[in-house]
Design a protein that fits this description.
This protein folds into two domains: 199 residues, NAD(P)-binding Rossmann-like Domain (Rossmann fold); 106 residues, UDP-galactose 4-epimerase, domain 1. The protein is built from ten helices and 14 strands. The longest helix has 21 residues. The chain is globular and about 55 Å long. The N terminus is likely disordered.
Length: 337
């Protein structure tokens, strides 16, 4: 796929750029004047999610091929999204997660260091904190993941930290996502996983009749209504954080990690209620046991990213986030019918 950008636009490598978050970032990189070169094996991404740039089908862990691609295109900046993301699956298949999330990051990093890459933006996760001792959680909190998914992301952060310490010309930002949600506000992009596990996506697909009911995992957490609490961040705002991170590194910012969240928590039942309000459909909900590896609450302290990156989008109402996802789900359903 060719972009309308001229060949003089700076190429930038985006691994996993045909996926949910990556495709939104590719959209914004193009608007910013970069030429996104997307490396994706399409195991969970979709070629049609690329609104711009060039798709190279392949594995981010193929060190030789990635290095050749970086050198051939003169790439100096990399954004790495390619990863497995399901907490429950990571508990059942931990080696799968370490292989893809940690070892492939190592292989990609080797290609980057050998080929002169200067800036690296890493898609990390709040799962690196495990069960925080205080809420909201700041970047200074202990890193004690309680599931292999979070551990695999922490291993990658450690690789980046040590690589940057050994190579003065190489710097990185690790963005620790809280809960990405919603869709492109023009409904051009959104979640399209073959086996969706995200709460909001499952709720909306249940409203559309794709699932017989929505399962709520755990109603005995030490929270106000007994269900897990998360910091839901609109994917468009999350995407903008990556552009801010690139700008930060371009301006000489030091390598470090930043939380990506609003600092506002919503429970599972809050999300369910919002989905019912937005859709106007009273879909069935059943309560089930807690899933392994799920903490009771994860809410960001966004102070550092606001101060250092200047990232401070207005916090949207939960219904606004849900409405953007609902518009996308309706479009997706119409396309597949």
């Amino acid at each position: 796929m060719n972009s309308p950008k001229t060949p003089s636009a700076e190429p930038i490598l985006v691994t996993g750029g045909a996926g949910y978050i990556g495709s939104h970032v590719v959209r914004d990189l193009d608007a910013k004047g970069y030429f996104p070169v997307v490396l994706d094996d399409l195991s969970s991404g979709h070629a049609e999610a690329m609104l711009c740039g060039e798709l190279v089908r392949g594995d981010a862990g193929d060190t030789e091929r990635v290095g050749a691609l970086i050198r051939a295109r003169g790439i100096r900046r990399v954004l790495h999204f390619a990863a497995f993301i399901q907490v429950e699956e990571s508990v059942a298949e931990p080696l799968k997660y370490y292989e893809n999330n940690s070892f492939n990051c190592l292989r990609l990093l080797k290609a980057c260091l050998a080929s002169g890459v200067k800036s690296f933006i890493f898609s990390s996760s709040a799962a690196v904190y495990g069960i925080p001792g205080t809420i909201p959680v700041a970047e200074t909190a202990p890193l004690l993941p309680i599931n292999p998914y979070g551990a695999s992301k922490l291993v990658s952060e450690m690789l980046l930290r040590d690589a940057a310490a050994s190579r003065p010309g190489f710097r990185y930002v690790a963005l620790r996502y809280f809960n990405a949600a919603g869709a492109d506000r023009l409904a051009r992009l959104g979640q399209d996983y073959r086996k969706p596990t995200h709460l909001l996506t499952r709720a909306l697909k249940t409203a559309l009749g794709r699932f017989p009911c929505l399962e709520v995992f755990g109603d005995d957490y030490p929270t106000a209504d007994g269900t897990a609490v998360r910091d839901y961040i609109h994917v468009d705002d999350l995407s903008s954080a990556h552009l801010k991170a690139l700008e930060y590194l371009e301006n000489g910012g030091e390598s470090r990690a930043f939380n990506c969240g609003y600092g506002v928590g919503h429970s599972v039942l809050d999300v369910v209620a919002a989905a019912k309000r937005v859709t106007g459909i009273d879909f069935p909900v059943v309560h089930a046991a807690r899933r392994p590896g799920d903490p009771a609450a994860l809410v960001a302290d966004p102070g550092l990213i606001r101060r250092e990156l200047g990232w401070a989008p207005p916090v949207p109402a939960l219904d606004e986030i849900v409405a953007s996802a609902w518009k996308w789900e309706q479009k997706l359903a119409a396309r597949k019918n």
